[in-house]
Amino acid sequence: MKAATAAQIKKELKYRSSEELEQLCLRLSRFKKENKELLTYLLFEREDEAAYIHHIKEYIDERLLEINISSSYYIKKSLRRILRETKKFIRYSDVKETEVELLLFYCTRLLEFKPSIRNNRVMMNVFYRQVDLIKSKIKALHEDLQYDYKQELNSLIEKL
Fold first, then answer.
1. Are 35 and 28 in contact (CB under 8 A)?
2. Where do the structural domains in the chain lie, given as residue ranges?
C-alpha cells in the first residue's frame, strides 16, 4: 500500500466531521508509541513550552542515572539512545529555541557525566557533532536569543 501525500491527507481531512477526526486520532494513537507521544504533546503540553522543556530535561537526567557504567560499550550505547530520544522529543515541538535548549542541556550533561567522556574519541565526536548542530540552529534564531545561546555554548566549550 502506498501512503498518500500530506497534501492529499489535508484535503481529505477537510471533508471529515469532528467525530470522524476524533476517531481517526484515537485509532492513530493505538498503533505507535510515537503517535501517542505526539498527540500528548499537541493536546496537553504545547501551550506551556517551558514546562515541556523542563519535563524533557528531567527525563534526560533520569536516563543518565540509569546508565550501566560497567562497560564503555553500554555507556556509548545508552548515551546515543538518550540523544536519539531527545531528538525525537525535539521533533514534536515547532519551537526552534526548544531544540537549541535541549541540545545544549544534553551536551552539558554529557560533559558532566561520570566516567568522563573526554577520553573516549567516539563520544567526543558525538559531542562535537551536537555542538556543530547547535551552532547552525542558533543562526536561525532572533538576534537577542542568538547572543544568549552563543554565550551559553561558549561557556560549554570552555569546560573542555
1. yes
2. 48-158
User: Residue 14 is placed in which grid cell?
Assistant: 477537510
Instruction: Count Cβ atoms below 10 Å from residue 151 Cβ, excluding itself.
Output: 10
Contact 156, 108 (CB under 8 A): yes
Say if CB 82 and CB 106 are below 8 A apart: yes
Give the tens place of pLDDT for each residue, 55-74. Answer: 999 999 999 999 999 999 99
Residue matched to cell numbers 573526554: 118
| pTM of the entire predicted model | 0.88
pLDDT digits (tens, 9 = 90+) for 110-143: 999 998 899 999 999 999 999 999 999 999 999 9
Angle (nearest 5°) at CA 85 between 63 and 6 = 160
